[in-house]
Amino acid sequence: MTAFVLVPGPFTGGWVWEETASLLRAAGEEAYPVTLPGLGDRRLPDGAGVDLETHVQDLVRLIDGIPVPRVVLVGHGYGLHPVLGAADLRPARVARIVSLDTGLPADGEPAARSVPDPGVRARLAAADTSGHDGGAARAADGGWIAPPERGGWSRWGSTEDVPAAALDRLERLASPQPVRTFTQPLRLTGAAAALPTTGVLCTANGSSVDLVRMLVEAGPPQFREFGDDRFRFVDLATGHWPMLSAPGELAELLRRAAAGEGHRMTAPAGPCERPSHLLPFVVDLPEVPRERLGRVDLHLPDTGTGAGTGTGPGTYAGTGTGTGTGTDTGIDADAGAGTETDTDTDTGPGARTGTASDPGVPRPAVVFVHGGPVAPDQRPTPRDTPFLLGYARWAARLGAVGVTLDHRLHGLGDFPRAAEDLAEAVALVRAHPRVDGDRIALWFFSTGGLLAADWLAAPPPWLRCLAASYPALAPLPGWGAVESRFRPADVVGTADGPPVVLTRAGREHPAFAATVAAFLAAAEGNGADVEVVDVPHGRHSFELVDPGEESRACVERALRSVLGHLEDPPRHPGGADEPARRP
Question: Could you tell me which of 54, 24, 247, 22 has the C-alpha nearest to residue 134?
Answer without folding.
Answer: 54
